[in-house]
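Subject: sequence -> structure tokens, single chain

Hey, anyone have a minute? Need the predicted structure for the following. Not urgent.
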Amino acid sequence: MTHYLGLSRMLRLSVQIVRPYTLAVVLLVSGLATQYPAIASEDAPLAVREIAPGVFAHEAPIALADEGNLGAIANLGFIIGQDGVAVIDTGGSAAAGRRLLRAIRQRTDRPILYVINTHMHPDHVLGNTAFHGSGATFVGHRNLPRALAEREKAYLDANSALIGASFEGTTVIRPSLLVDHVVELDIGNRRLRVEAWRTAHTNTDVTVLDLTTGTWFLGDLVFVGHVPALDGSLAGWIGILGDLRSRSAERVVPGHGPISAPWPSAAAPLERYLTRLEADIRSSIRQGQTIREATREAAQSEAGAWMLFDAFNARNATTAFHELEWE
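Reply:
Had a minute. Here:
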């Protein structure tokens, strides 16, 4: 109980001090566990599950980055080809990245060919440090280098404070292979389709489709079970969800939630929430409400459907209000 209360206080404090556009510094991952996570050993590999032949994923717990979880608070994955491995997202610290690397080495000694970051948020990119110098090519959206440069100090300072001594040595590694539209990567008789998207959850979102198994890593373009964090464009996100739903996949891996979700049904609750948020904010603007009034009322009909609703909804509404009031 002490741990739970401590986590609650940390969450309230973090939400108070972080601006909407840098909310991802303390982004919670929407895993299925609700208990305070056990302290992880830096020497222990991350737990991963094979969700399709040669496709592995780590399902993260619900937690803030802290010294107990070493920043391993995002769904991460890797795909093994005949020539080597592609990694999709790396966690929130060098220590988390090393735990992911140990999990990979338990399953293959093939070289790491690519490290793909689905977007800029620290729980997905700071583990890149563990793969630096391995010969891997780092891959990301064309906007990712600039976004990381603008937020580097904030991300490192905030996560260092949260994780403590185990964060030492963590740096920001920028991608060298930039995706403007679509890039296909060959890891040995296995091709991965990396696609860049217009501004939605962020302005740095990419998805990764394994053409062999139909497994689609969607990053934070899809949250399952937990209210999302809006750090880009509400209208853009709604539009992209329509594009995503029009495509088929055997399974998807969301950035937050269960690591193998049915498609396209997994997108329905998120789309419902975002469209409700949009409708309520537009109504508030038409009525001449202040931003405080609008954020207090927006999307309240969704409150019972999402975990962490009270922590994130008001900030999502604030971001949406700033976007929509000038249309």
